[in-house]
Amino acid sequence: MADIAVRPMAAGDANLVLAIYQAGLDTGNASFETVAPNWATFDANKLAEHRFVAVDGDSNVVGWVAVTPTSARAVYAGVVEHSVYVDPAAQGRGVARLLLDELIASTETAGIWTIQSGVFPENAASLTLHQRAGFRVIGTRERVGRHHGRWRDVVLLERRSPTIT
Ligand SMILES: CC(C)(COP(=O)(O)OP(=O)(O)OC[C@H]1O[C@@H](n2cnc3c(N)ncnc32)[C@H](O)[C@@H]1OP(=O)(O)O)[C@@H](O)C(=O)NCCC(=O)NCCS
User: Fold this and answer.
1) Is the CB of 141 under 6 A from ligand 1?
2) Domain boundaries, position 132
């Protein structure tokens, strides 16, 4: 991983971030969404302080991570939901793990105590990634939504910060 670095996401990363997003959606196992949003929508929905990209030795964006708030209620102010996507050509080299570790550090520093995510059971890479990064499986929601006309289960995962007490 010597050639991969993680830095804050910038507006200039938009095209590559959205292309990597779409490549993940096209696998059919990343999200119920099928079409990546435009940058204005992405930018409006993701918290600005906790967005990162991974770049290779040529400064090309090869992955990203970002979070959305889960609730407007004050009690859940420290609970966010994240997305992590890596360029298919850069997968299997620890890029997502670097991104998640950066996100964990950044959110903990900001006082965010829980990061959660929903993952399709078929997404073995994502399930392994998250469990290695300290997420636990809460359980599986059964046939909770339709994706391309087919009911899908979703595994709920969370990481509760051990440092925010
Ligand atoms: C899921 C995804 C982000 C993983 O990215 P990645 O950079 O390839 O992951 P990493 O290389 O950091 O691997 C992290 C861990 O997962 C494991 N892993 C990676 N791919 C795997 C696979 N296909 N099957 C099982 N485990 C896998 C790795 O071995 C590693 O575990 P280790 O530390 O014990 O070796 C990537 O596959 C992706 O972008 N998929 C499409 C979008 C998506 O599904 N995003 C997640 C939505 S919930």
Assistant:
1) no
2) 5-160
